[in-house]
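Budget justification note: compute hours in this period were largely spent on complex prediction jobs such as the one shown. Inputs:
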Amino acid sequence: MEHDSWFELVSASADGQLNEHERSRLDAHLPGCATCREHLEQFEADRRRRRMATPTDRGELLARVRQARADQLRGRPTPAPPGRRLAVRAGVVGAGVAAAVAALMAMTSSAEPAPAPRLAAHGDVVVDAHAQSFDRAEIEVPAGSVVEWRNTGATRHLLVRELGPVTITEDLLPGSSEEAEFTQPGVYGFSCAIHPQMEGTVTVEA
Amino acid sequence: MTGDDDLTRLALRAGQGDRAAEEVFIARTMDDVWRYCAHAVGVTHADDATQATYLRALRALPNFRGESSPRTWLIGVARNTCLDERRSLARRINLRDRIEAQPQDAADLGPRPPGTLETEELLDALDPDRREAFVLTQVLGFSYEEAAGLADCPVGTIRSRVARARADLLVQLRAIDDAEPDGRGRAQGSA
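Corresponding output:
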């Protein structure tokens, strides 16, 4: 038997994942193999050490997630009405990531009473998502522009936007729209997580 | 590790709109989610990925029926979130190569704060599949079967990936030991 195979048995044994047959084979091998015994001892000690490790207090992150969740709930009455607007300030440069994310997550959103089939355009630039494509992929706008993504088709999309330090993934259901205000120059990607061929960039000029 | 029954009750109540249960659910599971994310997308992105995981998970929680363990379910959501994040990071870095003077430094997988995770540096050097198998089974304590379900591969694949991760870590540790002849090398992380 190759020694690699013994190593795998030793590893699985430390994790308590051997079947009866493997168990007895390893038991027969161990007394004659100092290397395997040493490995087994070490792996078992590592597992014990990990089990005793106490969870880290993540108070700050907990507060942040709590806040983001509250924003999410405020911004999204259930069920989410069509035509929901979500404005995101994109492009925070130089601030600490946590602060940047807090700012980004301070989403202002409002449920719109817009009737389902008609989608009024709110953005300076509007990107329409059809069944398999965006109607435009390379967008150039001056800083301060609002880009709006609308789903005018009947297919569900999962809109992924890379807004500076964070990536925001949102359902873009038929008849709904999402917006982002781009305040900082840069290149920002957007795509659909369901339809990989659907992707593009927003280039924000100074 | 929190008792799964207890956590299942919390998850079900949270799914029905009980905000207090939701908060306890988040608090009890956050360390695991953060650790998974830290290994999947790097420490610098772990907070963002953790937040994105919870927003996604809590939105889906009303559909959670308690048929699987809530911990497994939640780490599954974290995994999908991190896959998205990695995919977008890769594209961002690709984009940066294409476009000169990219002003938005993509907060990429830069240097990590020291001492954030034991063996963090060592684990980072592993092949991603091996690292995932190792993190799921060793750091988060999932069984091989649960890890196989999460990583969407056969149990035997998890077993061999864990073993290979351990072998790779042993090689790295040996190199550290050699570099530190006073014998301190083994003091902290090991496979």
